[in-house]
Design goal:
By secondary structure, the chain is mainly β. It has no helices and four strands.
Length: 66
């Protein structure tokens, strides 16, 4: 079963693993919750804030968030 990426509770697609490619997503300015799920289990979660006209980088290596 692959891992799925969610932004603010909305599924946006499969997480890309082991190919060192980043994925750019357009989101509105403001706070966001990033989650990686495998089945019903959240394996990574991070809260981030994106300012107007800014980029926020979320790096998910593996496992769960600290």
């Amino acid at each position: 079963m692959g891992s799925i990426v969610f932004i603010d509770g909305v599924q946006i697609g499969q997480a890309t693993a082991n190919n060192d490619r980043s994925r750019a997503l357009d989101v509105a300015a403001g706070p966001h919750k990033v989650e990686i799920r495998m089945g019903d289990r959240v394996v990574y979660r991070e809260d981030t804030y994106v300012g107007l006209g800014e980029r926020s980088i979320v790096i998910v290596k593996s496992g769960s968030s600290p």
